[in-house]
Amino acid sequence: MTTWISDVFTSDVGWTHLEHLVDIGNRMAGSDGEREAAELTRDALAEAGARNARLESYDIQGWARGDSAVVTANEELECIALPRSPSDEATAELVDLGYGLPEDFEEAALEGKIAMVRSDIPEYYERYIHRREKYYHAVDQGAVGFVYRNHVEGCLPPTGSVGTEDDPIGDIPAVGVSSEVGARLGRRYDGEEISVSVEADISEATSQNVHAELGPETDERVLVTSHVDAHDIAEGALDNGAGTAMVVELANALAAREDELETRVEFVAYGAEEVGLVGSGYHAEQADHDSIKAIVNNDGVVRGRTLSLTTHGFPELEAAAEEVAERHGHPIETVPQLGPHSDHWPFVQWGVPGYHVMSTSDEVGRGWGHTFADTLEKIEKRTLREQAILLTDLTVDLAREEQTIEHREPEEIAADLEAQDLAEGMKITGDWLYKN
Question: What residues does the Peptidase M28 domain cover (predicted)?
């Protein structure tokens, strides 16, 4: 065991790939940069020893950023458009809703007004409220514009997409503003008329998923996944260059241990995650769910030193992670609740066993992610290597023939979403696909 551990801990394969990804620049879904990142990832997986490395393309709704503005009677304030915002303009009274909790929308009179909400939640609140949920609460209450205020200080306007699977372009213009600009808007212009405008090029585009394989040619398989796209405003090192670097590092480590793999391991780096899980949704529609033994989805790794694995109510996944943690004497946090916000979800929502692999953080939300500050120097090479050791061993364990993981019934997943107070948000964003 010690030989392969030392090999992973001294490997530069994943880190080198991460550097290549961040040096591309714009990796927005459907862009030339996203295509270049996918091609580089395909080649890196092949070089690591994975077979049948390939791209699978599909059509998406493309969105390219133009100018955007927040204008008051006295000044123009810095902002950025939220991807999939329509190219549109609204002039109306600003209503500052603070955190933008569901009850805040119920109590506000938003018809014909512009809503502003923070990107975090209060400490007492039991669940995280996603940006898209807040956006569609505003739409549902008749707002004509949406301002998303970052809670992280540092003059960093946040990005993040709106829109739904059925209607990719949102209903009302939406922009992100920094914590400081949001504070100024709330202090000086709450109840006053402002204008919000977005210009965007909306046209058909193409994205692609990267696939490669290791291990025996079994029908059953373990998926090791990430997403290769990133928002166009930054390097996308944390979200999610690090996740794709991890997939490449795991492929390199598992190629050296291929004789231990008793089930096929398929590596997939998805495109178009940041605009609504489009790439993983496409894969989920094509795939035989019964053949997928487990998913190890890397989205949020390396941000902190300790791994955090959301296990979605699958006790076997929780037990496997705890066993690896005990074996290595290294902590791994397991979270048994559901987490419907990354590329595991198009599978897990139908009962396929899957982890969302992140890292622990005391922060609410993405921190530097989805801002200009998502850059390479926020990440430590040591953390990538340490986490790769744990995830390599975890993947080998999941691929063992004696490791059985029971799929769950979709009705159970739906019931858990209701019990965990996640259903309301999914219903308003159009992500609720169950019959009840």
Answer: 209-388
